[in-house]
Write a structure and sequence with these properties.
This protein is an alpha/beta fold. It folds into three domains: 64 residues; 55 residues; 178 residues, 2-Layer Sandwich (Nucleotidyltransferase, domain 5). The chain has twelve helices and five strands. A hairpin with a 4-residue loop joins strand 2 and strand 3. Helix 1 packs antiparallel against helix 2. The radius of gyration is 24 Å and the shape is globular. It holds the Pfam family HTH_32. GO terms for molecular function: nucleic acid binding. It comes from Actinocorallia herbida. InterPro entries: Homeodomain-like_sf, RNaseH-like_sf, RNaseH_sf, Tc1-like_DDE_dom, Transpos_IS630-like.
């Protein structure tokens, strides 16, 4: 039987990549979280079979998620439910409701409050004659279906790095064509690792969720994990330390140097100040280690980010470790499993628009 052709997610914009990264860190719905990780791994060039092995799902599941995302975008990450009686409010009215919800009361001459509550919005819709009666819950469902949600205002950052394109292409070149006699390693910190109940998802009888204790104290301090992803094998190496100063980072680099003697190490890392400490730079120059720094606000270019998302999902979510030794053991067990199933990392975001950038876009879609 012929092998199925590989399927990859469509080219993602930088903002879409950031949004996926946020979903993998904060999504509460397990279906949405799992689908987001699949899409993120596919966007980084991992094949359906590699994702299947790491996520423990079927090839067909991976392909269906990728196809659905290519067709419907981020809507495909949300589970869809069907059924119920026919809609009482037509599509045009629903669209109008969603548009009005995105306005402010002041735009309608209402100065008593600055934002809509569901009750105030429903009353306003009735006052202008758009609907005759509308419950708060029905309004909530209309807004959710229309992609309008209650959100905190936020800020966004674009990179102010004048050498963004040069640094980005230097990283992509190392991903695409590792130098002869060299090894490309992606390094980053993961944490902080404190002792606390971590929300997660698990299979339980309907209406009887697993319970975790509520805590307010954070005893026994925190730990920090320094992780390294070897692109040649896909394996992860790590250390857990009490702090993450330049001394801990340098010690970690020395352990990587000892692991691959005789090879030039190209270490990709972000602009965290301990990475640029003079002692670290001096040692790296003297020991054939090339520190390759990501552009400012360009941590999404670090290949280890998707691996950290999977580590958080599989090893920490839903746990309540009472000691750091217990938590460290759980992390170690996951990484052993990961390394047993690891494959070389190739084709990072091969079809992404970032490949054609000649300058940093003035506005990110």
């Amino acid at each position: 039987m012929a092998r199925k052709p590989e399927v990859f997610v469509r080219a993602l914009s930088m903002e879409e990549g950031r949004k996926l990264q946020r979903i993998t860190r904060s999504a509460k719905d397990p279906v949405k979280l799992r689908r987001a990780i699949v899409v993120l791994m596919s966007a980084q060039g991992q094949s359906a079979s590699a994702i299947r092995s790491l996520m423990q799902v079927s090839d067909d599941y991976v392909r269906s998620v990728v196809h659905a995302f290519n067709e419907r975008g981020f809507d495909a990450l949300d589970p869809k439910w069907s059924g119920g009686r026919p809609r009482r409010i037509g599509e045009w009215v629903r669209e109008r409701i969603c548009l009005i919800a995105r306005t402010t009361p002041a735009e309608w001459g209402i100065t008593a409050f600055s934002t809509w509550s569901l009750a105030k919005l429903a009353a306003h819709l009735e006052n202008i004659g758009l609907v005759t009666s509308l419950s708060v819950e029905h309004l909530r469902r209309i807004l959710k279906t229309g992609g309008v949600s209650w959100q905190t205002t936020t800020t966004w950052k674009s990179s102010n790095d004048p050498d963004f394109i040069t640094k980005m292409h230097a990283v992509l070149t190392l991903y695409d064509t590792p130098p002869e006699g060299g090894r490309v390693i992606c390094v980053d910190e993961f944490g902080p690792l404190n002792l606390m109940p971590r929300k997660g998802k698990t299979w339980r009888p309907a209406g009887h969720p697993a319970r975790l204790r509520a805590t307010f104290n954070r005893n026994d301090g925190v730990r920090h994990m320094l992780g390294a992803l070897d692109l040649a094998t896909g394996r992860i190496y790590y250390r857990i330390r009490n702090r993450k100063r330049w001394r801990e980072f340098l010690s970690f680099l020395k352990s990587l140097r000892a692991r691959w003697p005789g090879e030039r190490l190209h270490v990709i890392c972000d602009n965290y100040s301990p990475h640029k400490h003079p002692e670290v730079r001096t040692w790296a120059t003297a020991n054939d280690v090339d520190l390759v720094f990501l552009p400012t606000y360009g941590s999404w270019l670090n290949w280890i980010e998707s691996e950290f998302a999977a580590l958080r999902y599989f090893a920490l979510n839903g746990t309540d470790h009472r000691s750091h030794e217990e938590q460290n053991t759980a992390i170690a067990a996951y990484i052993r499993w990961h390394n047993q199933h690891a494959r070389p990392k190739t084709s990072f975001a091969a079809s992404s628009p970032i490949r054609s950038w000649t300058s940093y876009p003035s506005k990110v879609a």
